[in-house]
Design a protein that fits this description.
This protein has 479 residues and is of the alpha+beta class. Helices cover 25% and strands 26% of the residues. It has nine helices and 18 strands. The longest helix is centred in the C-terminal third of the chain and has 21 residues. It is globular.
C-alpha cells in the first residue's frame, strides 16, 4: 500500500507540474540499471476513434548516453508519457514525456476516415530486473491515462541482447564531455551519395553553427556533444512524391507527410532507430540533401531539415525547437494539414502557447512586466491581411512549379515586412499574451509579438521559449 501511495503521489505531482525532486543519486541508477540502452519498438495503430498499441520487439540500442541522475521527468511535456516501473517495488525508476507522428495524425481529417499504423520506440536504461513499461496519453484536461502496458524481463529469450550493428560512419563535430553528462545531438545524412559526404560535413557544420549562434544554445554550448552519421544514398535527394521525384534512401525520409508539400519526416521507425544506434544520442536531426523548402520536428522523436533552401538555417533551428523543447508553432496563417477552428480549445501542453482560460494563471506570468495587459493588444488585423496575400502568392508559385529560388525570394520579402511590422508596435519586445498561435487565429496566444517559432525573422527565441529550452538542457546536462 505504501508503494501504491508513493506512485500515486508522485504521478499526481508530475501531472500538476509541481516541483518534485528530479535528481536521483548515481547509486540509484547503478542499483536499477546497467550501462546499456533498452529499446522497445511497438506499433501504434488506430483511426476512426480507435487506438491500439502492440509490442513489436525489445532490443539492445547500444550504450546508455542519457543522464544517470535525472531519471524521472518532472517537466509535464508531451502528448504521451511512459514510465518504467520496478516490478518489486511498483515504483517508477525512469520516465519521459514525448510526442509522436501518430499523435499528430490524430489531428488530421484523414484520421476520421481510415486506419493507419506507425512505428514508434521507447528508449530507457537497461533494467537489471523485470519492469513494467506503462504508456500514458494526455486528455483534454491535461490528465494522463494509461493507454498500454507490458512487462519486460531483461533476461527473457524474447529480449534481443545483441549489440546493434553499426551503420555508416560516425564523426564528431564537437565534444564537451562524457555522454551521460551532456546533451547528445546526432545529425544523420539522408539523400547524400558517398561522394557527397564532404558536403554533408559542411552542411552539418553550417547548420550547427546557426543553432549555437542563438540563445540559450549559444551560452550553453559546453553542455552539448554533437556528432554526425554518414549514411550514403544511391543517388542525391530524398523522396518527393508530390512532384514525382521518387527515391529509396537509408532511413526513408520524405516530403508530403499528411499531404503537406513542405512537411518532411521519416515514417520508417525501425530503419531510423537502427541507424541512430551507431552513436550516443538523445536528440536527432535528419539533414535532407534537397533544395525544396521543408522540415519537421516532433518532441523527443525527430527533427528534419532540407539543407539547400535559402532558409535552411532557420528551419534547422525552428524544427529543433519542436524536437528538443516541445515548443509549439506560434504561427497561424500558413496552410497546415491539421483541423483547426474548434470552438472550445483545451489548454495546450506545449510551454509557449496558451488558451488563456484564466489570465491570472498564465503559464509565464512571472515574466510579465508591470502594466502589460493580458490579452496583449497588437496590430493583428493588419498582419493577417498581409499574411493572407503572401500565402496566396506562395500557393500560386507552387502551382506553377517555379524554381525554389523564387519561393525563397518571396520569403525574404515577407521577412523584411514582418521584421519591421512586428518590432514597431507598443508592446513589441515585451512578454504578454498575443492572440494567434498554434495554427489558430482565435483562442490561442503566444508569449511575444515575434519569435523564431512565429516567423522567419532573425529574432531568435523569445524569453518563454528560451526558458523552456534551458529546462531541457538541465534535464540532460546537470548532475
Amino acid at each position: 500500500m505504501r508503494n501504491a501511495l508513493f506512485l500515486a503521489a508522485l504521478t499526481g505531482a508530475l501531472l500538476a507540474g509541481a516541483a518534485v525532486p528530479s535528481t536521483q543519486p548515481a547509486a540509484a541508477f547503478d542499483a536499477s540499471f546497467t550501462s546499456s540502452t533498452m529499446r522497445a519498438d511497438y506499433f501504434h495503430s488506430g483511426g476512426m476513434g480507435q487506438e491500439i498499441v502492440a509490442l513489436d520487439r525489445v532490443v539492445s540500442d547500444g550504450p546508455w548516453a542519457g543522464s544517470r541522475t535525472r531519471l524521472l521527468d518532472d517537466l509535464n511535456l508531451g502528448k504521451y508519457l511512459f514510465e518504467v516501473i520496478d516490478r518489486d517495488t511498483n515504483r517508477p525508476i525512469y520516465s519521459r514525456g514525448f510526442a509522436s507522428i501518430y499523435g499528430e495524425w490524430e489531428t488530421t481529417a484523414e484520421y476520421k476516415t481510415l486506419h493507419r499504423t506507425f512505428g514508434e520506440s521507447l528508449r530507457f536504461p537497461w533494467p537489471k530486473s523485470p519492469v513494467q513499461v506503462v504508456l500514458k496519453k494526455r486528455d483534454r484536461d491535461n490528465s494522463f491515462h494509461e493507454l498500454w502496458s507490458t512487462v519486460i524481463d531483461p533476461n527473457s529469450r524474447f529480449v534481443n541482447r545483441a549489440d546493434p550493428p553499426k551503420a555508416g560512419t560516425v564523426w564528431t563535430l564537437f565534444e564537451s564531455g562524457p555522454p551521460a553528462q551532456k546533451v547528445d545531438i546526432l545529425l544523420i545524412s539522408e539523400g547524400y551519395t558517398a561522394a557527397q559526404m564532404p558536403k554533408f560535413r559542411a552542411d552539418a557544420k553550417r547548420l550547427v553553427d546557426a543553432l549555437f549562434a542563438v540563445e540559450p544554445f549559444k551560452s550553453r554550448k559546453n553542455d552539448f556533444n554533437v556528432r554526425g552519421l554518414e549514411l550514403p544514398s544511391a543517388q542525391p535527394g530524398v523522396n518527393r512524391p508530390q512532384v514525382g521525384s521518387f527515391r529509396r534512401t537509408p532511413i526513408s525520409a520524405e516530403y508530403n507527410i499528411f499531404d503537406s508539400e513542405r512537411y518532411l519526416l521519416t515514417l520508417d521507425n525501425r530503419a531510423f532507430r537502427d541507424a541512430a544506434a551507431s552513436a550516443p544520442y538523445e536528440f536527432i536531426e535528419i539533414l535532407a540533401n534537397e533544395q525544396q523548402y521543408g522540415g519537421g520536428g516532433i518532441f523527443n522523436d525527430q527533427a528534419t531539415t532540407a539543407v539547400d533552401t535559402g532558409f535552411a538555417e532557420y528551419v534547422f533551428v525552428h524544427e529543433f525547437g519542436h524536437h528538443f523543447a516541445a515548443l509549439a508553432d506560434e504561427y497561424y496563417t500558413s496552410d497546415v494539414a491539421y483541423e483547426t477552428g474548434a470552438a472550445d480549445l483545451p489548454e495546450p501542453w506545449e510551454p509557449n502557447i496558451t488558451a488563456l482560460k484564466d489570465p491570472s494563471r498564465l503559464k509565464w506570468r512571472d515574466l510579465l512586466e508591470p502594466g502589460t495587459p493580458i490579452p496583449t493588444p497588437w496590430d493583428k488585423a493588419d498582419y493577417e491581411t498581409h499574411s493572407r496575400e503572401t500565402q496566396a502568392r506562395r500557393r500560386a508559385l507552387l502551382a506553377k512549379k517555379v524554381p525554389e529560388i523564387e519561393v525563397d525570394a518571396l520569403f525574404r520579402e515577407q521577412l523584411a515586412w514582418d521584421s519591421t511590422f512586428l518590432s514597431s508596435m507598443k508592446f513589441s519586445g515585451k512578454v504578454g499574451a498575443f492572440e494567434g498561435a498554434g495554427y489558430e487565429a482565435k483562442g490561442l496566444y503566444r508569449p511575444e509579438a515575434d519569435c523564431i517559432m512565429f516567423t522567419r525573422d532573425p529574432v531568435g527565441f523569445c524569453r518563454v521559449c528560451r526558458r523552456a529550452i534551458g529546462r531541457i538542457i538541465d534535464q540532460y546536462a546537470r548532475p
